[in-house]
Every structure is written in structure tokens, then in C-alpha cells.
Specification:
Elements: H1 9-12, H2 31-60, E1 65-73, E2 81-88, E3 91-96, E4 102-107, E5 112-117, E6 122-127, H3 128-143, H4 148-154, E7 159-163, E8 168-172, E9 176-184, H5 188-206, H6 214-226, E10 228-239, E11 242-243, E12 249-257, H7 261-273, E13 278-279, H8 282-301
Parallel strand pairs: 6-13
Antiparallel strand pairs: 1-2, 1-12, 2-3, 3-4, 4-5, 5-6, 7-8, 8-9, 9-10, 10-11, 10-12
Helix pairs in contact: 2-3, 2-5, 3-5, 5-6
Length: 302
């Protein structure tokens, strides 16, 4: 999943770089630094709550399920991203099936991602704690970004409309807008597991994308509040309050209970390939992803 979120975001915002937190007495911290420390504290508390909640959900409901996601440019028939997400055995596997293959595996109990590019024979790991710290460190930079979109994504404020009968959910603003067709789900554990998955992947995506995770976290909270899961999501970016049609994206989501044949095959392929992959550090992996994304973007413009 970490690759499919970045394609359009990089068109409208510059990538931010990781900073380093410094411990100083609160009494002498300038307002912006204090705000960042409070932001970090909030995310660390959220981290613990989400981990405990998701572990409890896994323990009480071990049922496997899959979500098939396809992403389209608005009006297009062919997807630009195709992912299969598998909830199985206390782990969440995300297989990128279109273009260069990548795999993300979140170990719920271990609170750690394994990220892999089988086509490059490499893999790495990153802990959930590292992702939250990274998001907090980037937060003050995002607030001062020259990009209105990045500033909004750092501290999003949406107007929400929800129609329970139709499942139509709208989160709107002058900068960013979601319009969702959703479906109510009777099993609260399933919704909870999906929302926690989406939250952690929002943190992960922010390490490979210029957008902070908060904008997606707002959407996830709406799913949680209304006990729904997405079927179709249209994401619109705006400039001067007007929708930028060329940057509008549509994602379609299909929930399947149990393991599909495609999921079983993806798991089997992964289990056979993973032991042979070379481990590299996270910095090298991020650099590789950046280089590959740049090469792909260059190829698409020719």
C-alpha cells in the first residue's frame, strides 16, 4: 500500500525530509516547538491505544478476510494501482499487484512492518514507534510548507455529511475533499481491524509521500464512528476552492470474507520468496523507492 498513495501527491507537493527531535525543558520551548512536542505525545498515546485495541480485536476475532483495492484516475477505465490486502494469522499483508511488485507486512503483536521489493531482492523493517516519531518530527515542517495541500493535511478540518440510509459520506473543505460510498458492517471487530490497519498504513505512507497522515486518519475516524467500510472513494484536490480534475482519483474496494484463491497464492508466493531477500537498512530502502519512483515518473512523461 505504501506505493499506491504517492503518485498524485508528488505532483502537487514537495517531499519533506526527516528532522530530529531534541529534548529541552518545556518552560523555554518556543510555541512551535512546544506544539510539536505535544503533537508527538498525542501520537505516542494514540500508538499505544491503537496497538492494544487491534491486538484485542485479533484475539477475539481471528476470522481471515481480504480487501481488493483498485485506484483509477477520474474517468479512466484502467487502474493505476491494484492491491490485495490480506488479514491472516495476526498479520496484515498488502500485495501491490500492478507494476513493480512490493509487499508490506504488518505484525500486529510485534508492532512492526516488513517492507519488501521482491523484484529488487531486498527487504527492510520499520517499527510503528519509528513511524509515529517520524510523523511528529515532520509535523512542524508541514505546517510551514509552501504547499497549501501539505499545510492542510498536517491539521485537516473537514465538514462532514453522512447519510446512514445510503451510506454516502462526504468530508469537504476548500482544499481537499472525500466522497465515499460505504457499506454498514455488522461485525464491529471487522471494522475496528480495518480502521486500525488503515491508520498504521497512513503513518507508513507518510514516510514515502509528502502528505502527513492526519488527513487519512480523519477519514478513518469517520469509518469508525459510523461502523462502515468503503466501497468507493473519490478524492478531490482543490485550488481556490475549485476541483482540480486532473488530480482527482477514485478507489474501489471489495471486501471478501475468508481467503480467496488469489490471497492463498499471494501468501504462498511470499512465503517462498521472502527468506531469500537481502536485508537493507530503512534509509537505503527509502532511497531505493525514491529513485524508482523518479525513474517511473520520468518514463511516464516521455
Amino acid at each position: 500500500m505504501h506505493a499506491r498513495e504517492t503518485r498524485r501527491e508528488t505532483v502537487s507537493a514537495n517531499r519533506t525530509q526527516s528532522g530530529h527531535a531534541t529534548s529541552v525543558p518545556l518552560a523555554i520551548v518556543p510555541h512551535c516547538r512546544l506544539r510539536t512536542l505535544l503533537f508527538l505525545t498525542f501520537f505516542l498515546l494514540a500508538l499505544l491505544l491503537q496497538s492494544n485495541t487491534l491486538q484485542g480485536a485479533e484475539e477475539t476475532s481471528e476470522a481471515d478476510f481480504c480487501i481488493h483495492t483498485q485506484v483509477f484516475d477520474a474517468g479512466a477505465d484502467r487502474p493505476i494501482a491494484d492491491n490485495l490486502t490480506v488479514f491472516h494469522g495476526g498479520k496484515i499483508y498488502d500485495f501491490q499487484q500492478l507494476g513493480a511488485p512490493s509487499v508490506s507486512v504488518f505484525d500486529v503483536e510485534g508492532r512492526r512492518f516488513l517492507l519488501a521489493r521482491p523484484d529488487r531482492s531486498v527487504q527492510t523493517t520499520v517499527s510503528a514507534d519509528e513511524l509515529v516519531r517520524f510523523a511528529a518530527q515532520e509535523h512542524p515542517k508541514a505546517l510551514k510548507s509552501p504547499s497549501e495541500l501539505v499545510r492542510f493535511a498536517a491539521e485537516p478540518k473537514f465538514q462532514e455529511k453522512y447519510d446512514r440510509r445510503s451510506g454516502r459520506l462526504i468530508l469537504s473543505s476548500d482544499v481537499f475533499e472525500y466522497e465515499i460510498e460505504s457499506a454498514s458492517v455488522d461485525d464491529p471487530n471487522l471494522v475496528q481491524r480495518y480502521v486500525q490497519f488503515a491508520n498504521w498504513y497512513a503513518y507508513l505512507n507518510s514516510m514515502f509521500s509528502p502528505l502527513p497522515p492526519a488527513v487519512r486518519l480523519e477519514l478513518n475516524q469517520a469509518f469508525d464512528r459510523h461502523a462502515t467500510l468503503p466501497k468507493r472513494v473519490e478524492r478531490r484536490l482543490k485550488e481556490n476552492g475549485e476541483v482540480i480534475r486532473s488530480l482527482t482519483m477514485v478507489s474501489k474496494h471489495e471486501l471478501v470474507h475468508g481467503l480467496t484463491p488469489a490471497a492463498k497464492q499471494a501468501l504462498a508466493d511470499w512465503q517462498s520468496k521472502q527468506p531469500a531477500l537481502q536485508y537493507i537498512d530503512l534509509t537505503s530502502y527509502r532511497q531505493l523507492q525514491t529513485e524508482l519512483s523518479a525513474a517511473r515518473s520520468s518514463s511516464n512523461t516521455k
